[in-house]
Every structure is written in structure tokens, then in C-alpha cells.
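Sorry, I am new here, but would you mind making up a protein's amino acid sequence and the C-alpha cells describing how it folds?
***
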Amino acid sequence: MGELHTQQGGRVVSHARNRAISGQPRPTPRAEDRQRARARAVASLRDLGLCDRQAVHGTGRSGADRAPVRRHDRPRRGGTEEWRQTPSLSPAGRGGAPRVSSPEHRGEGVVRPDAVQSLQSTEHLVQGVQRRRGRDHREQHSPHGAHVERIGEHHVLAVRGERAGRRPPRYNGPVKQLGAVAVVVIIMGLSAHPVSAQHGAPNGEWPTYGGDLGGTKYSALDQIDAGNFNDLEIAWRWTSADGALDLDALREIHPDLSILNMRVTPLMIGGTVYLVTPLRLAVALDAGTGDVRWIHDPDVIRSTKKSINAPGYSSRGLAYWTDGTDERLYYGTPDGYLLAIDAKTGQAVRSFGENGRVDLGSQIPRNGRGTTDHKGHPVISVNSPPIVAHDIVVTPTSISDQPITKEQPPGWVKGIDVRTGETKWMFRTVPQADDIGVETWQDESWRYSGGANVWSMFSVDDELGYIYLPTGTPTNDYYGGHRPGDTLFAESLVALDIETGERIWHFQAVHHGVWDYDFPTHPNLIDITVDGRDIKAIAQVSKQGFTYVFDRVTGEPVWPIEERGVETDTDLDGEVLSPTQPFPTRPLPFEDQGSSIDQLIDFTPELRAMAVEAVRHHRLGGLFSPPMRTVEDGMQGTIQRPAIGGGANWMGSAVDPDTGILYIPSVNAYSVMKYVTPDPAEGGNLAYTQGGFQTAPLMPQGLPLFKPPYSRITAIDLNTGDHAWMQPNGDGDRYRNHPQLRDLNLPPLGGDGRGGPLLTTSLLVSALSAGGTDGGPRLVARDKATGAIVGSLDLAAGAIGTPMTYMHEGTQYIALTIGGDVPELIALALPD
């Protein structure tokens, strides 16, 4: 719950701004454009000789509960439109084409000789979408020439090897068929590697979503540095296999379907890159060439004969496990299954659960298989990667976030045996009758309330055997009149024993939440020294702009967290807000909080007067200001700042294990929540529910309302709690170039996005949505000590996922997903 999406042209797109290298917005592709792209794909299939039979492996479709306890308990053991930011779409994939196959039956797909015709139906899947490179790519899509052209501080990416006239390697030849079932040829064997804890990504690999189990997003690799970052070029690129599907036909079944949110951070283990697409194709690529080794299709999209909630068309990653012999990958589906596949072959692990999958909704109240909300959406899905430790796999779940009834499934967390799929334990985030914490759900509201799920990512201390859960809001996100009380364990950080599910400690960050201030990302684990005392710490960033820092063993705050009085008066019938909320005393917030006249823009007296007039009919106040109804010819609601999309979000933060410095990208966002009364004819029984977000009040001509920066990146020394530095995230030229601002000679204002961070020995790497050579998106490197930008590379489209890095055969790569009509994964490296 609480994920931020934007609806545009009937599609759900991410807030990374997808722009072409020219930096100009691209129109939504027309049907004939898509047809031409499909024709190119068919032609390329013929060129590649891929109408032979080739294989893709699919999954066939055919606990002890632990009681929660109260927080801090100790463990029992040891613009005008021209200037307004709107996502835009980039042109279709450059060069090359998908290799397409069709499933013979549910569960296992085989390419048939009529694969070309199968492009016109939904009954096909992709055997490998490897960008064709070389002459065609250079002639059509390299307007700056086949070299790195230096333009100021920016550099235009070229495909690696083009300087020397080389054609980069590509996938060659068909895959052999063995017996009745086609099997993917494994080009290179995979070696077994353990997944390490919170000390950075090990052995030049990237085995987990955050690099390590502690979510540091750090690698000690140093081949790429400030001196050569601008020399990076594209070593290889891979286009999402989703793009070869007949999306128009699929949208007859799933009107909200989108392939744009390829938010995945890939893994790299043993020379193979693993990722999963929005439509849940799992893919293995050669780490040095990007050649496809196998693709696994669980057939979940075509088989689900009802629409899936739009946020389900987004997947951030997958998890890897090995015991030294077996190697497996785990990821979730939009309809609430956990899948296990063999990392070597791409085949489903049939011994896991029921034929290779586990129903995450089983044993969860009000969530029987086939249960849907009032719009026909499944009430549970998976968008974020699982985590694996101590032979237990734990998976996030997303709960339908627009309910109109108070009866909803709770987001209980399961520990699942990594080999068998058996549920070993289940932690009840909404406690039941005899559970500790049930007293915080007054009027027995625990009997029907739901949510409090973990929709984002987990972290694990492998040595302690603790898993840390950043939980979400209870349902309904924005109204709690039907669930009085503090509602543990919603909007909390909870530590569990990963082997037993026993609660070790917890902290609740929001009591009786009605602002959707759930924890949006995994916490960062880091060992620090505070006043001479060594502490195994955990730092959790938030949408509010807070950083909560605890001893991760005991749950004790490293610095005091105070319960402070907040306003509680609201005109929402039945709503009773908590009189206090927790405020960390240290570190100070990394983002502006609340709204007041003093926080409005004052670039000129005239602009300040305009801003004051804009907010005249809105309630201003501090953080946790009570929500208000919108009244015709009266008050127009409460300005919430940060809003649901403000502060930190799923992109998270990164921490340097050598220095203890935490790096947080954030956004200065605000909104006014709208409330509506659900239609009883649809079954609604809530007094109020979400009626949509409104970025309001609006300033004339797209001017900003509040003072800058509009996005920033902050470095915090966790040894002292002090802010080391803060830099606006980008120049914010869409504001600075506004006719009423461009003559003011304003400094950088930020507002160029909130790309996820990657740390190396000397660099902080992240993506910006603007500021490139032609104003378009770029990838930047900063000096970790100062935040100064030391390198900048233009990107062909806006970044979507958080970058990662790895070393393969002596070459360091940085890989990330970028947008376009069909997203792609690009891997950057230094020239040979």
C-alpha cells in the first residue's frame, strides 16, 4: 500500500521522467507506430532464424503463528504546461527485435514454426529480446556519432566497441530441443556463491536487491571512478521481452496493463545477470554480453481472466539462494503467488510448494483464492523482491489500496521453507484475539481490518538471524473511523527471528495513520560508533523526511525519539486521531515538513503574494495536520507535506559501511487529499474513502508554491547524527527557465527526480530526470564527501530502476533499467 503512481493516457507510469536524448517530450505512440514496431520485430525474427523450436520454462498452474508485542520491548535473548513535470514516453526500442515464442499449453512454452503469426495473439511469450547493435543502431539511433562526444560536463553514451568498428556480440543460433520438452542451452555454468550480510556486495557480484542483505547498496569496486566516469559507454543492452507481446489484445483483458514500470534492480551471480519484467518474465543474461541464456514465463498475465490492480504491473526484483549445489530464484506475481525457479535452467522447481509456487494468500483471513475487490482486482499481489536467509524466504505483499469496505485481508508476513515451500511461521501484523498488541485495535476492529503489510523490501542481519519488517498502513489508508486506536503493527519497524518468526522488538512510527506514511523502503544496516560506543545500528528513512536510528539488536533508539503533541481536530465523522506522534530528535529531518506562510516561495514580493492567495482556502499546519473535507465555497482541504510521494520512497537510501554515512534522495512534494463517500450500491460501508490526489493549490502558470529545493540528496553521518551535506538533486531548469524566474539568476533548485542511489568506493551514482546535454535524463556521479557532481552521462530515456554494479572478467559494469515504449536494461563499462 502507499506506492506512488501516475496515471497518464490510460497507462500507469513511473515518476522517472522518460525522455529521449534530445530532451524533448515524446508523444504517446499511436497504433500505427506500434504496428510498425511489431513489423520490425517480425522482420528481425526472420533475420535471426528464430522460428525454430526454442524453449521457455513456465510454472504450472494447476506455521506456527507468533504473537506480537509492544514497541521497545527487549528481546528474550542475546508550469504552464511547458514547465510542469509530466512523465513522457520515449520512442520504441532502437534496433533489433524480440525473439518470440508461443506456449503450447499452460506452464511450459515452446516456440512453434508459426511464431511470426503468434505476434498477433496473446498466446506467445518471449524467448529473448536482445538488442541488435552495430551498423543499424549507429545509423538510426546515434545522432551524436559513434564516439563519446564531450559537451561541457556531459557525455553522450555510445555503444561499446563502435569506436573500433566492432559489432558487439549477440545471441547466436537456435536452442536445441531435448526430448518432448525443449530445454535452454546453458552457455556458461553457474558457480555457487553465498549471499553476504551488511558489508556491501561481495566478490564483485550483486546477489541481492540492495547488494547485501543489509541493504547498503554499496560495492567496493573502484575501476570506475571520478576520473573516467565520463568515458563510460554502453557495453550491451537488452530490451524487455514484454514488448513483443500483443499488448492491445492483453488490454482487452487487463485495461490497466503497462510494461513501462520495469523498476527492477538486477542481480549478478557467477557471471549471470538475473531480472524480472513487469509482466513477470524472469530472465537470465550473460553478464559480459547481455546474451539471453533463458527466459521463464509463469503465464500469469494471460491466464488471469480479470484485471489486475495497476500497481501490480511493476516488479522491483527477485531473490537468489544456493546451498552450494542447488541454485534458485524467487519472485512474486501480480495475483499473489511466490515462484521458485532453477537459476541454472530457468525451469520451475516443481518440488517447491504446489508445482513450483506458493499461494501467499492462503491462511490469510478474507483472502481466499479468487477474492477480488469491488473493481474486480485481486486483493493481494507482489511487486517487490523477496529476501532469503537461513533457508527461509520471506516475501512482501501489496494489499488492494482502494477499498470501500472495512473488511480487508491483513498483511501477515510468512516465513517459507526455501526448499519445500512450507510455511514455517506467520507473523500477524494485525494481531488477533490473544495477541499482544490487539488492545491497540479498539472496538475489536482487528476482527475485520486489513493491511499493515510490507509492500516494499526487507533487510536481514544474517549473523543475528533477524529480519526487519517496514510495515504499511492499515486499511483504509486515509480514514480510520472504523478502526479506532493506535493499530499495531501498522507503520512500524518490526524485528523478527527469521527462523521462528518470534518478535524481538518493534517501533511504531505513526499512531493511527491516516496520511499513508507507511515505510516505503527497506532499512539500512550499519555498524556505527556514537560517543565512543560501538552500535550495531539500523536506519529507516521515511516519507515524512525522518531517519529513525536504532540499535538493531535491542530496538533502543540511538538518539531520543519524543512523543509530541499534534493537532487532532478534523471534520471527518467518526475520526479520532492520536494526540501524540513520534519525532526523532536526531538526525534532523532531511526534507521540509508541514506548510506555513513562511515556507511559500518568496523569489519576489509579487510571487509571495500570489502564493499566499493560492493557499487562502486551504488548511496549513505542521506534520500530521488533520485531514479535512473539501467544502464547496469553503475550505478546500488540508495541505499534506510531505505528501504520499514526498520524502523518501521505494528507491530508498544507501549507506557506506566504511564511513557510516547515509545517502538519501528525497522529494519536496505536497498534495491535498480528497474524500468521497463510497456508493453503497457497490457494497461500500465506509464513511469515507480516497477520492483522489490533487496537487493543489496550484500556482498560476505552473510556478512552484513552496521554497526549493524541490528534490535533494542528503548525506547524514550516522556516527554523530549530523547532516554532512545536502545538494539539490539537479538544476531544476524547468523552474529556473520559467518566464517569471529566468531573469532572477537562481541557483540550482532541484526537482530533477529521486533516482535510487548506488555507492562505490569513491562515488555516489544516481539518475536524474533532466539536465543532460539537450536537457534530457542523465546518470550522474557525485563525490561522496561533498555531493559535488564529478561526472554526467546522457541517457536515451529516463531511468526507472536503481542502478547496480558488478565485475565480470576484469571489467566493472554499471547496469540499470531505462524507459521508452519498451523499457530496456543497459550495462555501462569503460572502453576496451
User: Anything to note?
Assistant: The domain at 6-152+154-829 is CATH 2.140.10.10 (Methanol Dehydrogenase; Chain A). The first helix runs from residue 31 to 48. Confidence is low (pLDDT under 50) at residues 1-153, 162-197. The first strand starts at residue 6 and ends at 8.
